[in-house]
Amino acid sequence: MEINRIQIIVKNIIMNKISLFISVLLITNSIFGQTVTRDSLFNFDWRFHKGTINDAEKKEFKDGDWRLVDLPHDWSIEDLNITDTTSKRIISGPFDSKAIAGKNSGFTVGGTGWYRKHFNLPQKDTAKVVYIVFDGVYMNADVWINGYHLGNHPYGYTAFWYDLTKHLFYGEKDNVIVVEVKNEGINSRWYSGSGIYRNVTLSIEDKIHAAPWGIFVSTPIIDRVSSKVQVVSTLNNCTSSWQAIKYIVRIFSPDNALVTQKEITTRLNQYIASNIKTELKVDNPKLWSPETPNLYKLVCSIKQEDKELDRTETQFGIRSITFDAEKGMFLNGNSIKLKGGSMHANNGPLGAAAYNRAEERRVEIMKSRGFNAVRCGHNPPSTAFLNACDRLGLLVIDESFDVWTMGWLPDDYHVYFNDWWKFDTKSMVTRDRNHPSIFAWSIGNQLRENSDSIGIALAYEMATLVKTVDNTRPVTANIIVPQMKRNAAAELWYKCDPFFAALDICGYSYQSGNYANDHTRLPDRIMYSSEIDPRNSFDNWMKTVDNEYIIGNFEWTAMDFMGEVSLGWYAMAEPKIKTMWPWMSTYSGDFDLCGFRRPRSYYRDILFKNDTKLSEFVYSPVPSFDGDNTSRWGWDDVKKSWTWPGYEGKPLQVVVYSAYDSVELHLNGKSLGKKQTNRSTEFKAIWSVPYEKGSLVVTGFMGNNKTETCELITTGKPYKIMLKPDRNTITANKQDLCFVTVEILDKNGNLIPNAENVVKFNVKGTGKIAAVGNGNPVSIESFQQPFRKAYEGKCLLIVKSTEMEGTIEVIAESIGLLSDKLKIRTIK
Predict the structure, then answer these.
(1) What is the pTM assigned to this prediction?
(2) Which domains does the chain have, with CATH numbers?
(3) Percentage of residues in the chain with pLDDT exceeding 90?
(4) In the chain, what is the straight-line distance between the N-terminal and C-terminal CA atoms, in Å?
(5) Residue 450 binned pLDDT confidence (cut-offs 50, 70, 90)
(6) Distance separating alpha carbons of residues 221 and 200, to the nearest angstrom
């Protein structure tokens, strides 16, 4: 493979050798942050063409009739508006039963897309250095500047950048950046989206500047009295001579007060990246944790003769993490259990588009229900997602790949692995190593090579490479036996021992049954459940809390995602299902595609000891979908409803999740008995109740004392719509979003759990519709039309700001219902 300029520069950045430290007690004392560079957001006014086209990479190509789009952009979520050749019907939504990737992509369409952006640079920037940074393009992207081919980047999940300097025009003559994106074949086991789906930035630098991703912050010593801060800065001197500079490093507290600073005078060699190591001390540091996500700010300046040439700002957090094979995991000296959920890079109705606000909302949702950790499956997430984890306090396992040399699908990453894994691993670690939220690097997911010599050798090589770039965090992986058996027999599981020996902390994929035996035979192994199915939530979490040496677990999955369809309903070997159409999502998440809670989230409240300690549900008397709901990644087919017309007098199963000693159920004031809800009952109680309209109330007891009640009532007919925005004010920047929950209510204001009314939206003013959606996994409606059918009484409207300050007016209407409206302010 050709070694291009970007690889050479990245190599210079990471080749400062760092010693490797591994022991039974693995200590990670670090101070991390995401570098905030001088980058300008480069998301607006790209011209887009879907499909192959000749000569589009040429500067003089005429693109005036191409569609204007803003980034992030995912074309696979857009309406197809095509005619099916077999049925002769028009397919308006993004779903096609004959999509090449089928159930893997959620029956959405990939293909080839082209992006072109025209831009001008002022004459005064002639002496500058210009970089373009892509945070993620799915996938196989070729990039040109003014007709010059900068390179190809196959992997859809790692960031990459190019130096544009030598190929630019200044003044009135415009520049054209061109990106061809090829999401072809069957290349992902889940919905990936297509296009430039993450942010793009353009960075215009002085010839003497900090390299992209060139600031690395760590602390060899941390305590509550003081923290020793080490900053390793990679500086580029792109002039033709040695340059004398002053390098000033300052640290500001979370309330923006100057804490400490240091000034260095040195000389930089021309054309060669130079590493400058600086050490400072922060007294009485405010430590970062999920409960107190304190962020400091590092400001690094390059000066010559009192003129500031370059300034880089980095937000960071100070925290220490230790792992002990007997006592588990400690954050800032305090024992912690990882209450984790796994999550794909998917924003539901927005597809893969990684809007900053959408990424932040996912973190908010997880935090609201007691999660303190996320495993990014099975690839590096967006920078926006990690920034939100830093700011809001969510621990992260940053994962590199789903496959290595042995693929699951004919066109997945195994096609590129041998040529690209080193580059992509360095890209992940170098970009992300300053985030306080990241506590471990995962080098892969359920790797099929985990018991052969090639895979074991690769594990050691990859772990060593990671630690060359960042030795402040442990290396892990999600491991399952080669035959993909859950809770495999011990002798089969032993085959993974040599692979595990290359790791610092060991991720058990559906293997909690091997905890005890492994702890006895390998007492120095640090272990956790890197992936576990929700059907076994109780057993797995009890093993975690009962055994200090287990550091936590990660449920599959925290939020639903498109693709890998019906995983949460059908058993994997379900013989009756052929194509899975029209399923479009996995239906395996504590939260659905819109971020609405599903029943198992309420059960997790009990396990995690959240504020919701009592809830009740009713088993659906008719299955919600075809099939038998036997999947281990699913949940009981229960509804938060006591509205079951046509079932009067027939017995319905009622289940209560309770953190109290016992619960008592009343139907229309009549007691149906008291039952224990403790560990022996898995914190559940079940009744068979003949259905009659009215009120179903459950009361929790601690001993003989009543605590709280929870009620389900029979609702009336749909009467009105209610709109609930997540925020009343958003930023007028063409990027910010407001997520509006749409509810169908009866005359008394009760949510109608079986309402399926079609709601139409009219959005005017300084905003527009970004997407609509609901939580129905078999809904193949459009995500972009101004209407949506409710599911279980709800749907979602996502509104996007324009660049204008003012007011967004939203009106929601449905035939026969009272409408609702709201106003959202947009401000600069």
Answers:
(1) 0.94
(2) 5-32+207-321 (2.60.40.10), 614-640+644-713 (2.60.40.10), 720-827 (2.60.40.10)
(3) 87
(4) 46
(5) confident
(6) 36
